[in-house]
Each structure stands twice: as structure tokens, then as C-alpha cells.
Amino acid sequence: MRGKSRITLNLLSWIIGLIWLIPFIGVFMTALRPLDELLHGWWNFESFHPTFSNFKSAWFHPTAPLSVGILNSLKVAIPSTVIPIILATMMGYYFSRYRFPFKRSMFILIIITITLPQQMIAIPIYKMLSATGLLDTYTGLILLHTSWGIPWITFFMRNFFTTIPISIEEAARLDGAGDITIFFRIALPLSLPAIGSAATLQFNWVWSDFFLALITVYSPDKLLATQRIPLMRGVYHVDWGLLSSAAITVMIVPIIVYVFLQKYYIKGMIGWATK
Amino acid sequence: MLRKSKFTHFLVFMAPALTLIMIFVVYPSIATISGSFRTEDGKWTLKNYLEVFKSSELINFEGFSRGFPLGALIHNLIWIAIHLPLTTSLGLILAVILRRAKGGNLLKSFIFLGMVMPMIVGGVMVRFMFDGNIGVVNAFLRLFGIEGKTWTAYPETALFSLIFGSVWLWTGFSMILYSAGIETIPKDFYEAASLDGAGPVRIFFSITLPLLKPITIVVVTMTLLWELKIFDIVYVATMGGPGGSSNVLALQMYNYAFRELDMGKASVIAVILTGSTLLASIPLLKSASEVS
Hints:
The structure holds two protein chains of two kinds. Chain A is an all-alpha fold. Chain A has two domains: 3-51, no CATH class; 61-274, MetI-like (MetI-like fold), CATH 1.10.3720.10. Chain A contains 14 helices and one strand; from the N terminus they run ααααβαααααααααα. In chain A, helix 4 (66-97) packs across helix 12 and helix 12 (225-231) packs antiparallel against helix 13. The N and C termini of chain B lie close together (11 Å). In chain B, 48% of the residues are buried.
């Protein structure tokens, strides 16, 4: 490319990228600065006294402390990542390696469950959880996230396993290994990168979930991090300092996961969507 | 050659996961369909459907002459009409431009941030962008001497604010998919084309775009599903207001079920919502049915 158009392209790219970043900078500034400095806009730097007081008030909020919310979200997100990954990896492997009756219908059923909106199951699961005493417990919510995550992880892992040649496994079979040994000794280790991608996405999606938590968890001390955000809004006017710092605190976890596991995250996003 | 499954294989590999899906996803979906056709005492009826279709919450016919609200279903359709073409084309353009730019990967990360954060936070960000005092939209307008307002607080602008805000959140998705797609196009195609004297615009329309068709199908399907299921953003930014003018299907279902405690009408909305997501996923289902 010629020099002039190269400069235009770089300039245009950076202008667009920075425009995209402005709301983040705005929320960050709003969270960091005291209220009286915000009256003339967070972009006004005539006086600049950054403070963590908004973060402190969100973290130790009297009615909805985020410190508790973050801990609760971890308690839900970790098992809701590990359990479906194990179960769905096995089911995905089964779909990729075996012939069995109703296989096609089963697979279509899995795809349909991937596309369902959570509203479709909301009322019956509310009734089921309340009938079994699992309403307002993390066990109930973890079961829901596990079941909700299994279909897409199965789809994802099945697509991955179909790219691994069966011949490797057949060699082990000739050496006398059984199917279950083959799965754990050969297929599972080979699939660790794919599992990494699936786990990264599942963790972030469970962390980000709002609706399932909204309808099944309601005790004030049990509320998850995402559920505490609307509570920070204030009734008559929006307390932007508090709300911004809460928003940043809650998004920091998935962003950290993204930054450190970016390779897996992007691969997962692409692999999951395009197979 | 695929192995023939023995019953023990089914028990070990499939039964645990399948049981969970059956109990917590499949059974509840069927129960919701059945609930949409039942009265509170469990008798079969079409009353719920009639009530929902007659109500102004789904489609508000008066709104067509008077203005917002137009009803949740119409709002979702408007969302699709604006958000789908914008995010898809913007994502493609950004993927093409940023590939060649210095620091393009960093810029892509900025744009992708909207996809990484929880959508409940996304809703706060959107509400923030359009705020009357500290919002960036008004700060920008003030440069041109225009005094703005809190755009999410007025019936005629609330829905559009959320839609444009959600473009900002979601464009990273199509950008990332298109970026990956472009990398798979062989370099020789481009070299051959430029040897033949094709300019960058010509190359884009006769090579890049046609070869990205499979990616486009995926982007469009996933984006449609996201637009139909939209909930968190609306919940936290406007709660569907003011006066229902930014209401959407998923939120209406929640309101019927957990605020008005009308399970029949809530189930009807859930069924309508699911019907539309199934329509949107036809391409996905087609490719899935080719599995061997």
C-alpha cells in the first residue's frame, strides 16, 4: 500500500478504536472522581482529585455489598463451569465416535436447546426448584447453569473431536485398551485446548448471567454480583459514581479472564459459532 | 468408521448429561408450551393466546398513529431492523480495515470489550452514554451547540438509544468472526486479482465478500438470536419504560410471570419468543441435520 493511504488507514482505525473506548473511559472517570467534579462533566479536568471512595462504597454497600456478590458469583461460576465441561465433553465425544439409534434426532434436539431463550424454561424451573426446596440455593442455580451449558459445550466438543483422526484411537484399541480408557487416556488429553476454550466462555457466560439468578435467588445476602448492579441505581436519581464503580468491579473479572486467556476465548468464540 | 455403541457406552458417556438436559431444559420447555394452553385450574383453553394478541403489550395498534409504545414484538422487530444490518456491516468493515492497521489487534480488543462484559453492565454503560448530564452522546452534541436530554427517559427516543447502544456492545462479535474468516482466504486469490489490475474495492466485492458467505450466515443467525433474547440491557437501563416504550418480549414475559403472576400469558410470550428463535436458527438446524 502507498504511504499516503497507509497513514489514512491508520488514522481512521485509531479514531474508530478510540471512539469505541470513550464510554469505558467515561465510566472509569466517573467512578474515580468525586461528585462535585462530575457536575461539569467527567471530561472536564480543571480540577482532578481521583479517589477510590466510590469503589469503597460499592464494595461495602450497606444493603448490597459487592464484596459478597463477587464471592457468591465465584461460588456459582466455578462449579457451573467444571461440571458441565466434564459431562458435555463426554457426550460430545459420544456423538463424534459412535453410531446409535436416534442419533440425528438427538443432535437436533441439542441444537434446539442451544437456541432456546431462558424465558422458555423460567416458570417450570421456578416451580420445580421450589417443590424440591432448591429455590434460593446455589445448588439449584448450579444445576440450571450446568444443564443450560451442556448443549452448547457438547456441540462445541463434538465438532472438535470430529477433527481428531480416529486412527490414533484405533491403534490403542489394537493394543487392547477399552473405550473408556481410550477416552480418558487419548481423546481427553488431546482435547485440552478445546476444553480450555469452552471453560473460558462458560465461566464468563455464567458470571455474566442475570436472568436465571434473578428468578431463582432472592435472599439479599445470596444475591450474585450481577444482581446487585440494578440495586445500586438509586430510586429517585442515578448515583453515577456508585453505579459506575460497581459496573467496573463486576466486569473486571470477565475482562481479566479475557485478557489472560484471549487465545482460548477468541478460538472458542469462533469455533463455537462456525464449527 | 464410527463404532457401534454398546449400552454401557451410552450409560457412561451420554446418560448423565442427557438426564440433566431432559429434566432442566426439555421438560420445562414442554411444560411451558402446555401451560400456554391452560387456565389457572389446568383446563385446556386458547384464552391466554387471545388475551395476549389482543393486549397492547405485544402489538399496540394505537401506537402506529400515536407513537411509542408499539408493543414488545414490534420493538424486537425494530431492534432487528436497525441492529442486524449495522453490526454485521460495521463488523465486516472493521475486520477489513483493522487487519492492515498498526496496532490493529489492540483496537480489535477495545471493540471486543463490549462482548466480554456482562450485559447487565452493558446496560449500565448504554444508560450512561445517553445520560443528560454526563453522557458522551450529549457531550458530543454540545460541540455543535445542540443541548441534548436523557435520551432513555423519553418514549420517542428510549428504544432507539438502547438499540444504538447495543450496536456499540455487539459489533465486536461480527468483527471477530469476520477477522477469522478473512484469514482463511488464500493470499494467492488477492495476488492474482491485483495482477489482473483489480482495485481494493473490486477485490472486496468479488473475492472477500463472496468467500465470507458462510461466516455471514453464522453472524446473522447468532445476532438474530441475541436480538430476540435481549433482556438484561433493557432491564437495567429503562426497565422497558417509560410507559412500555422500550419493552421487549423477554422482559414482557418476566413482567407477566413474576410481577403480574399471570403464568398463562407469560407462557404465551415465551412460546412466541421461542417460535421466533427457532425460525432464526433454521440455517443452524439445517447444517446440524446433516450430521452422520
